[in-house]
Write a structure and sequence with these properties.
Order of helices and strands: HHHEEHEHEEEEHEHEHEHEEEH
Mean pLDDT: 86
Radius of gyration: 24 Å
Low-confidence stretches: none
Strand order of the largest sheet: 4-3-5-13-6
Largest sheet: 5 strands, mixed
Structural class: alpha/beta
Distance between the termini: 66 Å
């Protein structure tokens, strides 16, 4: 019987996708739980079937050919769609419920404190929070992001656009004599490096205020809440979104170190995923009406 799709072996394609994504046969073998020789064999078989090379083999690694890059992009799109469908099937629930994905920081600082008010207004709608710091949540109705909503294919709602402040503990400010921006140039600074969001960093903050990049020591973290804890513990200064951190400022856990602030280049926005339920849209509209706590 003739195959309905003109495709090579799906196993070979999956092996190629892993090797292309990692640009490493060795890493692909670990991910696929096979030997590097098996990965090489499968990719050679795929190249023979397609009649052209997919990788340029080099002494220190591999790189995609033009044909390899074309195939990789197509496979990645297809696998992402399949992954989303599988996640929806696995997580299928009563459509009166709403699932929403957010980072640990956004969930703890902004989303969770608002849920009680939503439930009082809409007691029949159950909310399922998915904490996802990679930014790749699958099978959800809604997700919260920091960035440019115009880049999304799905419908979006802007939640808020914030000011970005230089924050630290009162003890840190006193110990380093911080009163103006120049005082921040050489003090320890906390940097948040996360794949989930393109967080605005210190060089951008200083540049927006027409100042040179800081020269002080850096303390890097990949979790925003832990970064705030480090700032509370006098380790360094951290950048903070005013609307997210009103509770920290009101309680004195952190203080604004200098009067100047940067207008955030991006908003926090809500992405409404395809097939979102009516209740998900109701929740999306409600969230978009909420004001940041400043």
């Amino acid at each position: 019987m003739r195959k309905p799709y003109d495709l090579p072996s799906l196993g070979d394609l999956a092996c190629f996708e892993s090797a292309a994504r990692n640009l490493s046969f060795k890493m692909a073998s670990s991910e696929m739980n096979v030997t590097p020789a098996a990965v090489s064999h499968r990719i050679k078989a795929l190249e023979q079937e397609l009649g052209q090379p997919l990788f340029n083999r080099q002494y220190r690694g591999v790189e995609l050919t033009e044909a390899g890059a074309l195939l990789f992009v197509s496979l990645q799109r297809g696998f992402e769609g399949i992954s989303d469908s599988v996640a929806r099937i696995r997580n299928r629930h009563d459509r009166t419920a709403v699932s929403i994905a957010a980072t640990t920081a956004m969930s703890g600082l902004w989303l969770t404190p608002r849920l009680a008010a939503f439930w009082k207004a809409h007691p029949g709608v159950a909310i399922s929070q998915i904490i996802e710091d990679s930014g790749r949540a699958q099978g959800v109705d809604l997700s919260i992001h920091y960035g440019d909503p115009a880049l999304e294919d799905d419908e979006t709602r802007v939640l808020f656009r914030d000011r970005i402040l230089a924050l630290g503990s009162a003890h840190f400010a006193e110990a380093h004599g911080i009163e103006q921006i120049s005082d921040l140039a050489e003090v320890p600074l906390i940097r948040i490096q996360s794949g989930a969001n393109a967080w605005t960093d210190w060089p951008e903050w200083f540049s927006s205020l027409n100042r040179s990049a800081p020269k002080g020591p850096e303390f890097s973290l990949n979790n925003y809440l832990i970064g705030l804890k480090a700032a509370e513990d006098d380790i360094g200064a951290a950048l903070g979104w005013e609307g997210l951190l009103g509770g920290y400022l009101d309680s004195g856990r952190l203080v604004q170190l200098v009067p100047e602030a940067m207008e955030s280049p991006y908003p926090f926005y809500l992405r409404i995923h395809g097939r979102a339920s009516a209740n998900a849209r109701l929740f999306a509209d409600w969230l978009a009406e909420q004001e940041p706590e400043v």
